[in-house]
Amino acid sequence: MNAAVAILSVGDELVLGQIEDTNAAWLARALQAIGRTPGERRTVGDDRRALADALRALASTHAAVILTGGLGPTLDDLTREALLDVVSPGAALVEDEAGVEHLRGWFERRGRPMPASNLRQAMRPPAARLLANPHGTAPGIAAEAGACRIYCLPGPPNEMKPMFDNLVAPGLRDDANVVATAALHSIGLGESALAELLGELMVRGREPSVGTTASDGIVSIRVRATGAPDVARRALEETVAQCLSRAGSVVYGRDGEPLASVVGRMLAERKLTISTAESCTGGMLGSFITDVAGSSAWYVGGAVTYANERKIVDLGVPAATIEAHGAVSHETAIAMARGALARFETDLAIATTGVAGPGGGSEAKPVGTVYVAVARRDGDVFSRRFHFPGDRTTVRRRTAHLALACTRFLLLGEGARSLLWSEGEAVRVERA
Amino acid sequence: MNAAVAILSVGDELVLGQIEDTNAAWLARALQAIGRTPGERRTVGDDRRALADALRALASTHAAVILTGGLGPTLDDLTREALLDVVSPGAALVEDEAGVEHLRGWFERRGRPMPASNLRQAMRPPAARLLANPHGTAPGIAAEAGACRIYCLPGPPNEMKPMFDNLVAPGLRDDANVVATAALHSIGLGESALAELLGELMVRGREPSVGTTASDGIVSIRVRATGAPDVARRALEETVAQCLSRAGSVVYGRDGEPLASVVGRMLAERKLTISTAESCTGGMLGSFITDVAGSSAWYVGGAVTYANERKIVDLGVPAATIEAHGAVSHETAIAMARGALARFETDLAIATTGVAGPGGGSEAKPVGTVYVAVARRDGDVFSRRFHFPGDRTTVRRRTAHLALACTRFLLLGEGARSLLWSEGEAVRVERA
């Protein structure tokens, strides 16, 4: 028996790869936050016996098991039955009165008739108890198998997460020992270049440990410390400070903070507003920005100018500019940014234009060629050409991230800016 | 020894839940496509022994193991060493000349000096061979452990996927037996309501099997058939046909086809163009649309009018309308759609406005209240109020999906339209 907490994800759609399992990673993070170590992670399909076997095996080697999925109203949801086989073999599921009330109320409040099939969701093993689900029809179920606590939660993340936080975490919290982790997010340097800056901090076996991961142009530094809360947290912060001093201004945020919210905070502090002019990103940049709650304080909106006609009419890009240099060029990107600045009357404006692929590439401008321009009210415009590897989605996501990064470096001032504007990539700067 | 293929994902960042593992699900799908069954799925951290132990265990019970991750240039990338411990215990890694050439060329072509650390990526166990990686610095590694074939691929999906398709799949393909799967995607009915339509098709043990999953407003019907290629594929298509006839027009696509590309095809067939006017989605709708390669044929662009001022200036929404009914209302949504129609001169225009949260909710319009309007050139405008549960991201994603769904039902005509426009939700239709 180890103190770790196993994570069991249930569903044919997961085993077959028909949907992504985001619950397991979220739970791993949530467990560490309360001082518990993520244990074995398994994924099983909608098979009563396979599910019961996995549950039995994990329960015999872990202090607790968090199961997600298989609590839906349909016949392929078998978590209730499998849990019964493990905690009350041979018994029958019983209908939980409070559970039935919850279901009736759920549908009544929505003025919809309750499909009979939903009643299955009020069933539980005799020895178990239901966990209230304020955001969906599926209650969770808690039970014990020997010394192991088993928590079954619904699969939909928006239902599972609050249930874990409110009903599961309090019972699992361990204040004697913690796994303290930190993630420092950077953009502007490649993974190897960043690793060279971090040097021996990344040596294996070092405590706290330091590692890096890269995704869509963002390189994250992962730090991990284990031990008594105070000791681990102090060691973590010391290593974090060392990483920060070595990596420098390419680090924009910590522990999942989105690049857009960092840029937003910088804009808010400076009382500046921004607008967007998007071609190849087609709205993704605006979407990243408005993912940030409260972004209306510094983001007014923008133009998605996918067709050249829209670039000309909505942003005032001279037709001659597109004619002469192409829609994917420094000149067009700069004109788009200046057009947005004028039209939306903001202090800054970001423009993106590029060849996202799979078609549209040429010898001079292959797929992955992207121009990002940032214009400032004082008249300066910075434009940079990038060439991103990868498919259409990757190119678009990288473009949106680097557009935000360009804005951040611009706001940071010359020193940091040079980092981004001098990496062997074509750059054009226009002064008013 | 079973014929299944194990999937081993490597990286502390996965175990700790710092990043999502999308490779495992993709590989599960890719394996089925070539007639192989996904076997055990494990996730291990950057620990040489744990990695070697897992590799050894999986190799002893599976016909093949696909490992992803741990091939980077940094000291926390230990897949090469762990593979050595499994296939050539006691031996040392050797430098692969072709691998070194690949790395030198990679950096030369980018006009960058090669960090010394990257040379580690050219190392391999003596008994193994490197797999060329056209899209990154990390070569893959192939080796045998007893009767099991082991393929190690880099973690970045844009590098891993083509390497699997070109270098791994050909050797694993099984034409004697297949697992045929199909996913039918629907929007407009809840999961339980759809399940009632499918009835006994969803009974456990049925072959082919039928299940449902829901995500961001989209409910997918999963069908799976196993057996000899012809038999399985015929059985699959028969069940798919039954599902389609029962579910009706709420099914919009199959096998991952995005809703936006379906709407795009309908528009292209009808030679119609569309534009977007986004408030609460802030560009996400345009981003979903432009994720579709070739969308420029039917999508010209749109306005992200996050601030009310932008709704008034860019879309001509009367200030009095916002004053009287609020920015989140049928009236404003309808004015936004009509404004986009006029400004962008398209045949249709979609508008979104809502309270994505966490703030901004009220008694009358709680967080999750969203209005979607679709205007047609003939002057008709359809507007529907939704109330979505979930967090800011969920509300925004559902809004973008339902906005596309409203457009689809509109294009399908009255019969299908009634489905979406008569579900106990407030609807307003203005005729020219």
Q: Please give the number of β-strands of chain A.
A: 18
Low-confidence stretches of chain A: none
**Beta fraction of chain A:** 25-35%
Average pLDDT level of chain A = 92
End-to-end separation of chain A in angstroms reads 69 Å
> What's the CATH first level of the largest domain in chain A?
Alpha Beta
The CATH architecture of the largest domain in chain A can be named as Alpha-Beta Complex
Q: What global shape of chain A is seen?
A: globular
Rg of chain A computed from alpha carbons, rounded to a whole number of angstroms: 26 Å
Instruction: Identify the most extensive interface between protein chains.
Output: A-B, 105 and 105 residues
Name the CATH superfamily classification of the largest domain in chain A: CinA-like
State the oligomer: homodimer
Would you give an account of this structure?
Two copies of one chain form a homodimer. With 432 residues, chain A is of the alpha/beta class. Chain A has three domains: 5-172, MoaB/Mog-like domain (Molybdenum Cofactor Biosythetic Enzyme, Chain A), CATH 3.40.980.10; 178-254, Alpha-Beta Plaits; 259-429, Maf protein (Alpha-Beta Complex), CATH 3.90.950. In chain A, 40% of the residues lie in helices and 26% in strands. Chain A contains 15 helices and 18 strands. Chain A has helices at 12-15, 23-33, 48-61, 79-87, 97-109, 157-172, 191-198, 229-247, 259-269, 284-290, 308-315, 319-325, 330-344, 392-412, 414-421; strands at 2-10, 38-44, 62-68, 94-95, 123-124, 129-131, 140-145, 148-153, 178-187, 209-215, 218-227, 251-254, 274-278, 299-305, 348-354, 369-376, 381-387, 427-430. Chain A has a six-stranded mixed sheet with strand order 2-1-3-8-7-6, with helices on both faces. In chain A, strands 14-13-15-16-17-18 form a six-stranded mixed sheet, sandwiched between helices. In chain A, a hairpin with a 4-residue loop joins strand 16 (369-376) and strand 17. In chain A, helix 3 packs across helix 4 and helix 14 (392-412) packs antiparallel against helix 15 (414-421). The longest helix of chain A is centred in the C-terminal third of the chain and has 21 residues, at 392-412. Chain A is globular, with a radius of gyration of 26 Å. The mean pLDDT of chain A is 92. Chains A and B meet through helix 1, helix 2, strand 2, strand 9 and helix 7 of A and helix 1, helix 2, strand 2, strand 9 and helix 7 of B. Strand 14 (299-305) of chain A pairs antiparallel with strand 14 of chain B, so a sheet runs across the interface.
